[in-house]
Every structure is written in C-alpha cells, then in structure tokens.
Specification:
heterodimer, A: 623 residues, alpha/beta, Rossmann fold, 4 domains, seven-stranded mixed sheet, five-stranded mixed sheet, 19 helices, 23 strands, globular, B: 210 residues, Pyruvate-ferredoxin Oxidoreductase, domain 3, six-stranded mixed sheet, 8 helices
Chain lengths: 623, 210
C-alpha cells in the first residue's frame, strides 16, 4: 500500500509521481475517479482506490472512464480520470465535446506520455490535445509538482469552466522523489441540474457555446503569464537562455546551473510575455521540450529571434543529461566532456519473456506449428510477446482491439498467394472488452472468415494484473458481475457450434481445435481459460524435471518458450545421411516451474517427470 | 551537508528485487535528511527483461537519472547485467556483482551466446569489481530470497552514512510484518558486508602484487 494514504498533513514522503497525483486528487476533494490501466499511468487509480470518501473504478476503456468523470463533473463532483497517451486517442470523441460543454465540478484528465517507449506502441505528444481542445495543459517536472498541480488543476477547471489536462511522462509517473503532503479539502457534490443548453450538444446548443470556448483560451493565456508554476530563473551565463517544461527542466538544471531558465509548468497557452522577458536577457533562446516542437513553433510564430530547439535536440526520446550536454555544448562551442571511462559491453539482448507456465505459450506453441498456413493479427497485452522467439507467431500489433478489424480487412484482401491462408486474430480478455468486441461484431455482421483466439487469463496482465469486467472483481477487489465470454460472443452472433472454450495447457487439444476451425470458412471463437500465473486465481502444482538419461536432445520443449527450461549441454551429431543435428539437452529450474505440464506434452521420449519442489523461487521479492 | 551527489545504479532482471533494493536505499537516504530521487523504467521489463533502478541522493538532486560515467556504485544482481551497465560507473567506481548467471530463453535457443566470464571482461577494462556468489550465502542461510539483503549489506560500507542505518531500514520492514525474519536478515546483511570486505581485500592485495 502506498505510504501516502495514511500520511498526516505536512509529512515528507518518498512518492512516485503517480502516488503523488493520487494524493493531490484526493486532497482536492475529488469524489469520482476512473481509468483503464496503461503504463505508465496505471498506479494512479490503484493508489486512489485506497483513499476513503471517493468513488474509484476501472472502466472498460478510456472513453468510458472520461465519460464517467464527465458525468461526475456535470453532477457537481470534482472528477478525475487517468490514462496513458494512447488512451486519450480512444477518449478523444468525448474529450473534444466536453471542452465545448465545460464543467461544473472540476474535471481533470491525467494523461501519461511514454517518452522513450518503454511499454507502448508509439511515442506521441499529448500536449497537442490542449491546442486541439482549447484547454489548459499543466506539466509537472517531479512528484512534488505532480501533487501540487493535481490539486490546482481542479480549481483551474472550475474557475475557467474547462477540463484541464495534467500531462505526465514516464519520468514523472515512475520516479520517486520527496513530497510534502497536505490535507483533504471537503468539497460537497452539488447534484445534477438539467440545463439542455449546456449538456445537450445539439448543433444549435453547441454553436452557442463555441465563442465562450475561444474566449476562455485568451483568459487562460493571461493566467499562464502570472502562474506560480511558470518561473523565470536568472543566471550568470547569458549566452543562452532555456525555455523548458516537464522533467527536461530537471535534466537541464543538472547540466547548466548558471543559465537563465524559463521553467514552465502551466505550458498551454504558452506565456509569451515571459518568453519575451527571457529573450531580452540572453543572446540565444533554446526550447528544451521532449518529443514535438510545440512551444518552439508557437514562440517562433510570436516573432522571438535567435531561437533554437529541434535543430539542436532530438525529436524522439528523453532529453537526459547525456543528450543535452553534447548538443548544447556543441552549439556554444564549449568542450564536450567524454561521457564514459569504461567501455560498453553488450553481452546479449534480454527481451521480456512470458512467465514460466504462462497459458499464452500453449496457444503460440500451436500457432507456430501452423505458421505456414495462417496469418495472425495480434493485439496489445502480454500475448504480443508471441511475435518473439521461439514462436514468431504474430504478424500485427497496432492499437487496442485492432486484431479484429485488421483480421477482417486481411480476409477481404487476399492475393493469389494468400488466398488459402487462414486468418487468425489473437486478443486477450481485457483488450477484448476494451475495444475488441465491436470488431468481432463487425466480423460477424460482414461475414468474415476469421478464427478468433480469445485468451482469457482473467486479468489485465501486462500492466501488472488489474481487474476488469471479465474477472468478477472491481478495482478494490470487491465482487462484481462477471462477463460470460461464451454467451457474449454468442450474443454478438457467433454460432454456438463455432465457439469453443478450451484449456490452453492441453497442447494436442489446442492444436486440434485451431486446425479444425481454420478449415471452416466462417467466424469461430476459441476461448482459452487458464488464469495468468501471477493472478490470485492461479494454483501452482508439483514442478517437473528432466531425466538426463532419457533426454534425447530433440529440443522440442524449448519451443514451448518457457523461461524455466534452459539448455545445459549442446552436441552436434552427424546423421547417417551426412546432415548435422544440433542436439540440445535441457534442464528445468524446478524452483521456477509451477507444473503446468505443457513441456511434458511436447516431450517425445517422456523424459520430463514430476520433481520435488526446490527451496525457493527467484531471489528477492520478499523484502 | 556537502553538495556531493551519490549515484547508485542497481541492475538485474525482472523479478529479482532490483526495485525493492533501490527503494530501501532511497528510503534510508531520505531518513538521513538527503534529497533523493529514484527512477526506473518498468513496464515490459518486468517480464524477465533487463531492469535498472537509479538512486541519487545529496543536498539537492535535480535529474532523476544517472548520467553514464558518473555512478559511484553499480549493484548487479546478475553477472552479465553487471557487464551491461559497467560503463555507467565513474572512474574508480565500484561494481558489486552477484555471480549468478540467469540465462534467458534466446540464449537457450542458441540465438545468442552468454559470455564465458563477464567479470573478467569488466576487470580487463579496468573496472573495480567485487564479485561473490550471493546465492550460495543465501542458501547457507536457508532462503534464496535473502540475496537482496546480502547485496545491500555488500555496499553498506561504501555509502555516505553508517551501515547500521541501511540495516535498520531493512530490518525495520520485517519487524512489523514478519518478526521471525529479523534475525536471518541481520545475518544476511552482515554476511554481505563480510563478503564484500573479503573481496575488496583480495583485490587490493592483487593490485599491490601485480
């Protein structure tokens, strides 16, 4: 549990940006909070759910999360929603109209950009939404600011009748730093009061509100100029002055302590008078902002001269000290210090793997064996790892739920070469409920020939195991109605005889079922129903070991892809026909093995048998 | 308090407890009144991938990330990971390395080779390495999960606060929840300290003799 929940006012705590935001939201008196999990924003709602006197939920997707928050705001409650950057793409339909309608209770949207792509399908700059929707953008640089801005955002929202974007990056969400917290401010819920001109956005009503939206932007500009989050820091080295926002400020301060810096926290609308004030003091102005040159373009358009930004700095990734120092020193003609003394060793890549006994491995083991006969559209979750070794059994990943529509498009666009290939779509339970079921409905409706693999592991795995409508549990672990996937897909129109619920650990059954369904030219859904090994539903059983004398070195078990199986000895053997066979004799780490049995089914010579459990698992989780 | 910043990089693989060790270091630092930042990128790395955690503390810490070539201490929970991050050390920095070899599936499949002796590679490049088998010590003490405490014990004499402060931070976590684990963690901490001291003495005498 986050230490912040029980912390008394004025306590000094080491908090992640996400925990700090949760504390700020709670202290601001928020009553409604919603989110769909997404790295790096997930922990905000997990943390908020631990506070009293606030409703918090996992929503089925980000659009619904924002709509729940809008409903809360309309009802006069301070309301909050959180999402990763791509989540706001999903929520954008609601977003672009609530910006016209406005708010009653403060409405704050935290959106976390994954600068550097640690766990995302793209790198995008959510500050664009501020410009697009004419709403203010706040950008904290560390946990303390994240906490303060979360609180301030509600006041700003109410005072200017606008949703507010709290724009975060991974380097704010997942950095722990010292925060001094305060107390919860009681804010009562006013209750919903019908007002069609505000809430019923028909063309006539919306038209009436648009001028206010534009006028609001002008007022926000004036407010940004005077905001305590926008600070002009003087410096002795006036060859260059920096305009910066977010965690870039921290990196910049580290590297150039003597330079004047305009540190912006209230970053949209850009406080142009402050920028001019900085420009008057220095020879050159450099805008240091991660990813897109948004402020830079606006400052250039405002006529500031001797302006630099993306001509010196990369457009991708973080602007950390090792990036800033060579770029800025090079620009100034200052010497560039050597970055490291010791050489960089790159021993081997260590990509993320599926966990020992992960039920997804059973599906990919079978798909790999059918590889030449199928094309496979994939989705977003742990099962995206099926694209990697040893399976190489996933051809596409674009966006949440996209496996469905993409599969249908592939089915409708066949060439001479691909006309006999089956189209398979692979999707997880949480992703299916997020945005996949509409795509399946489209496949049914348009008579697509797609075999859908719905991998139900009863959790949102990749983000660390969150509940969803298919787990039967809510955000707080409370019991909720559980979606029945068989009945759901049947209701969407899939024929009952084309729906199979199977155990992914039974490799021959998985193979047989897929093979049978891809040969039938209509939509089928194969649901696998073993829980994630990290979830509360998973039960470990007796582990296995390899009997050395019986192992023939065929290496079949390696193709399951289980990280508990390693090669302990390799041997080249010349066959009678002169070909060389590479034999791999394996061993199973019985401390890691949880007895799923998949490797046993892959083993021809029956060399894998049950073993006594070893003393302990991988070191370290206990502290 | 001096202006000097202490930079500690903890590295290993997903599930080894890297982030917990970094958390304990950071908590100890703020208990001592330092400003402190701790940073990692988790996400997909949790699934058996590479994990690093940056811990920085001092009077005032700006950037949450350690610039390559400025780490005072590299704590490696796995030996090849130690070599992967050795360039983060400043000249004269120390690499404290657990010699366990965790072989990833892509090495098992024969697509990549695990280096024969990552420690020798680092040493040949001039890195000061104190390596020992933390797993063996943990096994002797009866619980592999103690590796985390052993590794923290190993760096305890190289920090700008007394080793007892770090030990108290670890033990304090158990005192409330699992009092039965207090004594064995104290032993593990001391065993880590002793192992590091022994390795440091050996390295110094080797340096004198060469």
């Amino acid at each position: 549990m986050s230490a912040a929940v029980q912390a008394k006012p004025q306590s000094r705590l080491l908090l992640s940006g996400n925990d700090a935001i949760a504390r700020g939201v709670w202290e601001a008196g928020a009553k409604v909070a919603a989110a769909y999990p997404g790295t790096p924003s997930t922990e905000i709602l997990e943390s908020l759910s631990l506070y009293p006197d606030l409703y918090a939920e996992w929503s089925v997707n980000e659009k619904v999360a924002l709509e729940v928050a809008i409903g809360g705001s309309m009802s006069g409650a301070r309301s909050f929603c959180a999402m990763k950057h791509v989540g706001l793409n999903v929520a954008s339909d609601a977003f672009m109209t609530v910006t016209v309608a406005g708010v009653i209770g403060g409405l704050v949207i935290a959106v976390a950009d994954d600068v550097g792509l640690s766990s995302s399908q793209n790198e995008q700059d959510s500050r664009y939404w501020g410009r697009f929707g004419h709403v203010p953008v706040l950008e904290p640089a560390d946990s303390q600011e994240a906490y303060e801005m979360a609180k301030f955002a509600f006041e700003l929202s109410e005072a200017y009748n606008t949703p507010v974007i709290l724009r975060l990056t991974t380097r704010v969400c997942h950095v722990k730093a010292v925060v001094q917290v305060g107390e919860r401010q009681p804010v009562a819920i006013a209750g919903f009061k019908p007002d069609a001109r505000r809430w019923v956005m028909t063309p006539a009503n919306a038209k009436g509100r648009l001028p206010e939206q534009i006028a609001r932007e002008g007022k926000l500009q004036a407010l940004a100029e005077a905001s305590p989050f926008n600070i002009l820091e003087t410096g002795s080295d006036r060859r260059v002055g920096f305009v910066t926002s977010g965690p870039s400020y921290m990196h910049l301060r580290e590297c150039f302590p003597d330079a004047p810096v305009l540190k912006l926290g209230f970053t949209y609308p850009v406080p142009m008078a402050l920028v001019e004030k900085l420009a008057d003091q220095v020879d050159q102005v450099v805008v240091v902002e991660e990813t897109e040159p948004l402020m830079e373009q606006e400052i250039r358009a405002a006529g500031i001269r001797n302006l630099h930004g993306k001509d010196l700095l990369p457009r991708l990734g973080e602007l950390t000290p090792n990036v800033l120092i060579p770029a800025i020193n090079g620009f100034l003609g200052d010497p560039i210090p050597p970055s490291t003394t010791y050489p960089k060793f790159d021993p081997f890549p260590r990509p993320p793997t599926m966990c020992a006994a992960c039920p997804h491995m059973g599906v990919y083991y079978s798909l790999a064996r059918l590889r030449k006969k199928v094309q496979i559209s994939g989705d977003i979750g742990c099962y995206t790892l099926g694209a990697g070794h040893p399976w190489n059994a996933l051809d596409t990943t674009i966006s949440m739920g996209a496996s469905m529509g993409i599969a249908l498009g592939m089915d409708k666009a066949r060439s001479e070469e691909t006309k006999d290939k089956a189209v398979i779509a692979v999707i997880g339970d949480s992703t299916f409920l997020h945005m996949g079921m509409q795509g399946l409905l489209d496949i049914v409706y348009n008579r697509g020939n797609v075999t859908v693999m719905l991998l139900d592991n009863r959790t949102t795995g990749m983000t660390g195991g969150q509940n969803h409508a298919g787990t039967g549990k809510g955000l707080k672990g409370d019991d909720t109605p559980r979606v029945d996937f068989v009945r759901l897909v049947e209701a969407l129109g899939v024929k009952p005889e084309r729906i199979h619920k199977i155990d992914p650990y039974k490799l021959p059954l998985v193979f047989k079922t897929i093979k049978q369904e891809i040969e039938i030219p209509e939509v089928s859904v194969i649901i696998t129903d073993q829980p994630c090994v990290l979830s509360e539903f998973y039960v470990k059983i007796t582990p296995y070991k390899v009997v050395d004398d019986d192992c023939t070195g065929c290496g079949n078990c390696i193709n399951v892809g289980c990280p508990a199986i390693t090669v302990k000895r390799s041997e080249s053997k010349v066959r009678a026909d002169g070909k060389v066979n590479e034999l791999k004799f394996t061993t199973i780490d019985t401390a890691m093995c949880t007895g799923c049995h998949m490797c046993v089914e892959s083993c021809g010579p029956n060399a894998i048998v049950q073993a006594p459990r070893a003393a302990a698992v991988i070191p370290g989780e206990q502290l | 308090m001096s202006d000097i910043i202490t930079n500690i990089l903890v590295c290993g693989t997903g599930g080894q407890g890297v982030m917990t060790a970094a958390e304990i270091l950071a908590q100890t630092a703020i208990t001592k009144g330092f400003d402190c930042k701790k940073s990692e990128v988790a996400g997909m790395a949790q699934r058996g991938g590479v994990v690093t955690s940056h811990v920085r503390f001092g009077k005032r810490v700006w950037s949450p990330v350690i610039t390559p070539g400025t780490a005072d201490i590299l704590v490696a929970f796995e030996v090849a990971e130690g070599s992967r991050w050795a360039d983060m050390l400043r000249p004269g920095g120390i690499a404290m390395v657990n010699t366990i070899r965790l072989v990833p599936p892509i090495v098992s499949m024969g697509l990549f080779k695990y280096p024969d002796d990552p420690v020798a590679q680092m040493r040949a490049a001039g890195v000061t390495v104190y390596d020992f088998d933390a797993g063996a010590i943990a096994r002797q003490l009866g619980d592999l999960k103690l590796i985390n405490t052993i590794m923290l014990g190993a760096i305890a004499d190289y920090l700008p606060f007394p080793a007892t402060e770090l030990e108290e931070q670890i033990v304090g976590r158990f005192r409330q929840r699992k009092p039965a684990m207090v004594e064995v963690n104290q032993k593990a901490f001391e065993a880590g300290r002793a192992a590091a001291r022994a390795r440091a003495a050996e390295e110094q005498s080797a340096a004198v003799n060469s």
